């Protein structure tokens, strides 16, 4: 399995290197869909230039990266392209190894449930076989590395790639079962972009499952493990934040990074829903709706945890998707991360209802984004509503994609336990509805 | 040769509107009139008013090739042409300038009438004295003064005190004549023909202020006519330090501010401090700042940059740049245009947003600082600022303000946008609510209502199994 992975990696690196040398690199780096005020490379360079001038990068409103990024690129600025290519490769390899391990876990669990007779007798075609699961990790790496979104993100040198890498390592550490590493990587991810905080729940559920600790609120071992994991996470977070303080000897980065993410002062257009909403918001309600939109990201965690407590990795996938759709400054790099997981649920294909139209919507919107941007900003023949409309459509497409996969997942679970060929009391074929 | 221009001296002060010497667009100016008025308070509480009217004319009067007189008075022109005068100085003065109490006189002239000419020759009789007599008679007629009393009894030929003031090709002092009539009285009769020498008379320009009844109430009155040849000046004097600024780039996403600073001093380099204040919604990227002089990068010796904070303070950029002699320095910095909240746009958002002028402060080398207020153009004014070699002059210059367009949201859409975006969020909420709170059930058969029975009838006709 290593050889095909190496081939895929080589192909990805070649594509990226070719694009770096071409004239498209400048065009892609300027695209608002790829570079947001939070992770644009231009702003990293600006922050480092401000530091050279003796001005704190956080004294202005340009630089919103964390001090660890300053540390990292202060030394590696010359090799930026190489850094981003290596980051992408590392992400893909981490996802590959994580999904390989996850497949083993799935297969073991499946075998256990079959032996315990939990499955209905006629669901043989729904059971995943090692044959079909063999190529899934490679497909995941392929989906991530050769996804045009990822390639554009890498060519634009958006620090979203670094965030994706940290999240991938977090997933790998969680699936391997190492609570400490998982907590550290989750702390790094939260430190960089705040929203991965919601991934705490699926990680905890997975680790509890791995340790065979039952998820009951009255169970003492459950609370013990939870406190252990939470304290690991919080301590790593505190250590990282204190390290950041010592870089510039000030706490200025906290309002500049986290205040910026939460209060959304910069209304630069992007693929998300926040910018136009707050550009057109009545000033009186601005604070209220900022709170509503931010709560919206964190709010699905508990209900999803309750529903999907037996399937924490799917929970993680849905949570990642919700973060990518509803975060304050989304980019296509965030979309690419959760899309990399789609091959893992390829066995759900038969239950997806709208996959064709949704993929068409997503592809067409991806092409229309730069067109309508050009018409608004350069040609002057369209206005902001056109771009906003594509934003809405793209987000609806993503939301319906995720809910379609969620529906398919739940339906398959129902069929596994109740049998594939359902009959009514009178023997006729039955339909399944969600009630 | 190139020295055939002529001057007429009078003084007048002008504002920057079109003056009497203004040429129509496209026409080359052969003649120009400049007026200057200097009002100076004297230490004793008196006020000195000095009017100067100067006409510069590129014409070869000696050759007699001129027939059309525009700004230059015809009477004097024909006199100069006929008698071959190169320089003529006539002054009629009433009163005595009290130098001790009033300071240096603006116009140096003795009491009475003074006339002196240079390079006088006579076409007809080849006699300078004859020409002199004729000149004084003609001038007597023009100015209604008894200059005809000038004859050999009051004329001298000085050898050292009086040298030609204009261009001269070797001076033969035998061609110089000087005469003074101390008894000559100046009155309204002399002022009127003097005013008539101006192209608009006393009907336009500063000459309107020359009212005889006020002028002759003064303690001192002097009126003079000076004609002399000067160098042909082909171009306008260029200021030493000037700058211009413009916005580069296209589209509503990015742009760049370009400032061009010109140092036109031929051999002195000097530093200049540039202050730029840019509003916060044009996000400057200081790592894109480039300063190029004569094709090479010019690093500023001092930079102070204070980045902007959204809705709180603007960008501040101050730089000390060394400008080499005779060079153009181009300073460019890139910016990104922000999208503002709809309430932050002015009532006419597509007019654009103004960026204030940038300020250039410099100590310009002073010899050439005088070029801005040219000795040639305003001799009275520059006499107030005696300049010495080596000292510098503080100059503060402002560049053009810029007008920059920002991308605008649709101002008619706030309710629609709120509804549509909340709809998208609600779609997600609704889908997830359904999937989280509902479970799968086998559907119970139901007879269905009227619509279903109707649909089944249609299906029976089609041959399709019923619902």
TrEMBL record, chain A:
GO terms for biological process: attachment of GPI anchor to protein; GPI anchor biosynthetic process. The chain crosses the membrane at residues 68-99, 166-187, 193-209, 230-251, 257-278, 285-306, 351-373, 385-407. This is PIGU protein. Its main location: endoplasmic reticulum. Belongs to the PIGU family. Keywords: Endoplasmic reticulum, GPI-anchor biosynthesis, Membrane, Signal, Transmembrane, Transmembrane helix. GO terms for cellular component: GPI-anchor transamidase complex. Pathway: Glycolipid biosynthesis; glycosylphosphatidylinositol-anchor biosynthesis. Residues 1-17 form the signal peptide. The keyword Nucleotide-binding does not apply. It is found in: Endoplasmic reticulum membrane. It is a multi-pass membrane protein.
From TrEMBL, chain B:
One of its GO terms (cellular component) is GPI-anchor transamidase complex. The keyword Signal applies. Pfam families: Gpi16 (PF04113). It comes from the Eukaryota. Keywords: Signal. The keyword Cell division does not apply. GO terms for biological process: attachment of GPI anchor to protein. Residues 1-23 form the signal peptide. InterPro entries: PIG-T. PANTHER family: GPI TRANSAMIDASE COMPONENT PIG-T, GPI TRANSAMIDASE COMPONENT PIG-T-RELATED. This is PIGT transamidase. The lineage of its organism: Eukaryota, Metazoa, Chordata, Craniata, Vertebrata. The gene is Pigt.
């Amino acid at each position: 399995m290593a050889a095909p992975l190496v081939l895929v990696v080589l192909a990805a690196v070649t594509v990226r290197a070719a694009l770096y040398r071409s004239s498209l690199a400048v065009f892609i780096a300027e695209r608002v869909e790829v570079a947001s005020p939070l992770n644009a490379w231009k702003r990293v360079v600006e922050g480092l230039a401000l530091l050279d001038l003796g001005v704190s990068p956080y004294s202005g409103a340009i630089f919103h990266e964390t001090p660890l990024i300053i540390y990292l690129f202060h030394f590696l600025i010359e090799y930026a392209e190489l850094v981003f290519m290596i980051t992408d490769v590392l992400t893909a390899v981490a996802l590959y190894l994580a999904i390989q391990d996850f497949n083993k876990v799935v297969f073991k669990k499946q075998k256990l449930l079959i032996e315990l007779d939990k499955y209905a007798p006629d669901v043989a075609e729904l059971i995943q076989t090692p044959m079909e699961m063999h190529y899934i990790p490679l497909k995941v790496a392929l989906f991530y590395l050769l996804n045009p979104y990822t390639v554009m993100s890498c060519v634009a040198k958006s620090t979203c790639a670094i965030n994706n890498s940290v999240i991938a390592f977090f997933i790998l550490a969680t699936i391997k079962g190492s609570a400490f590493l998982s907590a550290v990587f989750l702390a790094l991810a939260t430190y960089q972009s705040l929203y991965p905080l919601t991934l705490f729940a699926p990680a905890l559920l997975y680790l509890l499952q791995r340790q065979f600790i039952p998820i009951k609120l009255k169970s003492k071992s459950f609370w013990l493990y939870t406190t252990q994991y939470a304290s690991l996470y919080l301590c790593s977070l505190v250590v990282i934040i204190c390290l950041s303080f010592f870089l510039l000897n000030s706490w200025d980065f906290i309002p500049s990074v986290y205040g910026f993410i939460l209060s959304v002062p910069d209304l630069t257009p992007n693929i998300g829903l926040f910018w136009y909403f707050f550009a057109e918001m009545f000033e009186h309600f601005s604070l209220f709706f900022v709170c509503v939109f931010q709560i919206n990201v964190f709010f699905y965690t508990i209900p999803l945890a309750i529903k999907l407590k037996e399937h924490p990795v799917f929970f993680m996938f849905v949570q990642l998707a919700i973060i990518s759709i509803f975060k304050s400054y989304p980019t296509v790099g965030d979309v690419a991360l959760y899309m990399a997981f789609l091959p893992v649920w390829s066995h759900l294909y038969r239950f997806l209802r709208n996959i064709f139209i949704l993929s068409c919507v997503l592809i067409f919107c991806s092409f229309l984004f730069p067109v309508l941007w050009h018409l608004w900003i350069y040609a002057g023949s369209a206005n902001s509503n056109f771009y906003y409309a594509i934003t809405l459509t793209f987000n609806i497409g993503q939301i319906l994609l995720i809910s379609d996969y969620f529906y398919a997942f739940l339906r398959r679970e129902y069929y596994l336990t109740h049998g594939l060929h359902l009959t009514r009391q009178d023997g006729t074929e039955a339909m399944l509805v969600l009630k | 040769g190139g020295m055939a221009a002529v001057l007429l001296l009078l003084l007048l002060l002008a504002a920057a509107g079109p003056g009497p010497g203004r040429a129509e667009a496209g026409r080359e100016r052969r003649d120009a009139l400049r007026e200057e008025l200097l009002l100076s308070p004297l230490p004793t509480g008196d006020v000195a008013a000095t009017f100067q009217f100067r006409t510069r004319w590129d014409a070869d009067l000696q050759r007699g090739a001129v027939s059309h007189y525009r700004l230059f008075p015809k009477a004097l022109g024909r006199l100069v042409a006929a008698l071959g005068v190169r320089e003529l100085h006539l002054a009629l003065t009433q009163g005595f300038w009290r130098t001790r109490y009033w300071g240096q006189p603006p116009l140096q002239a003795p009491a009475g009438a003074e006339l002196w000419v240079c390079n006088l020759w006579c076409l007809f009789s080849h006699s300078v004295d004859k020409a002199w007599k004729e000149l004084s008679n003609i001038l007597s007629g023009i100015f209604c003064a008894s200059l005809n009393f000038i004859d050999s009894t009051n004329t001298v030929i000085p050898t050292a005190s009086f040298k030609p003031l204009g261009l001269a090709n070797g001076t033969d002092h035998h061609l110089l004549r000087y005469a003074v009539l101390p008894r000559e009285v100046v009155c309204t009769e002399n002022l009127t023909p003097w005013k008539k020498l101006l192209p608009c008379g006393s009907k336009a320009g500063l000459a309107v202020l020359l009212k005889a009844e006020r002028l002759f109430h003064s303690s001192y009155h002097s009126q003079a006519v000076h004609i002399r040849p000067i160098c042909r000046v082909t171009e306008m004097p260029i200021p030493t330090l000037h700058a211009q600024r413009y916005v580069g780039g296209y589209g509503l996403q990015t742009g760049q501010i370009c400032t061009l600073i010109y140092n036109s001093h031929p051999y002195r380099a000097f530093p200049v401090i540039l202050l730029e204040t840019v509003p916060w919604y044009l996000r400057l990227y200081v790592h894109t700042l480039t300063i190029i002089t004569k094709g090479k990068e010019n690093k500023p010796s001092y930079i102070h940059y204070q980045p902007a904070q959204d809705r709180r303070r603007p960008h501040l950029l101050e730089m000390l740049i060394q400008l080499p002699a005779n060079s153009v320095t181009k300073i460019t910095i890139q910016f990104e245009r922000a999208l503002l909240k709809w309430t932050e746009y002015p009532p006419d958002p597509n007019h654009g947003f103004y960026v204030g002028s940038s300020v250039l402060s410099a100590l310009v080398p002073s010899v050439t600082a005088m070029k801005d207020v040219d000795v040639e153009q305003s001799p009275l004014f520059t006499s107030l600022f005696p300049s010495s070699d080596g000292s510098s002059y503080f100059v503060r210059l402002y560049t053009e303000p810029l007008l920059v367009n920002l991308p605008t949201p649709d101002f008619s859409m706030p309710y629609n946008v709120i509804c549509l975006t909340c709809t998208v969020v609600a779609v997600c909420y609704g889908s997830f609510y359904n999937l989280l709170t509902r479970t799968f059930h086998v559907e119970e058969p139901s007879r269905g209502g009227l619509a279903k029975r109707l649909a089944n009838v249609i299906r029976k006709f089609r041959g399709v199994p019923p619902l």
